[in-house]
Amino acid sequence: MEASDVEYRCFVGGLAWATDDNSLHNAFSPYGEVLESKIILDRETQRSRGFGFVTFSSEQAMRDAIEGMNGKELDGRSITVNEAQSRGGPRYGGGGYGGNRGGGYGNSDGNWRS
């Protein structure tokens, strides 16, 4: 990942249904330059899913916003703010068939309670 690809993005959870991109932008702009504020919408209903993301121009602005806004009230709801996980790159964990987990039929030691 090149330096120009770095994004300073916060995850914002616990949002009120009435919160829109503008109110999210206005709430976070005192902490620094907001490049984007985005409420995530349900694909079918186009209603808020109760969370969104705010992207800042600098890491310091993002950190200040996390510290200043986490646990605060926005549009009548207490919100959670933390650093967003990167969208790109390898993803580890989750599903798949990795490794021997033991147990089940056919254990080599013959003991089904391993």
From TrEMBL:
SMART domains recorded: RRM (SM00360)
Origin: domain of life: Eukaryota
Region (Disordered): 72-114
Keywords recorded for this protein, A-Z: RNA-binding
Gene3D superfamilies documented for this protein: 3.30.70.330
CDD domains per UniProt: RRM2_NsCP33_like (cd21608)
Gly residues bias spans: 90-107
The keyword Glycosyltransferase appears for this protein: no
GO molecular function, one term: RNA binding
The RRM domain, residue ranges: 8-86
SUPFAM superfamilies: RNA-binding domain, RBD
InterPro entries linked to this entry: Nucleotide-bd_a/b_plait_sf (IPR012677), RBD_domain_sf (IPR035979), RRM2_NsCP33-like (IPR048289), RRM_dom (IPR000504), SLIRP/GR-RBP-like (IPR052462)
PANTHER family, per database record: HETEROGENEOUS NUCLEAR RIBONUCLEOPROTEIN 87F-RELATED
Protein's UniProt name: RRM domain-containing protein
Organism lineage: Eukaryota, Viridiplantae, Streptophyta, Embryophyta, Tracheophyta
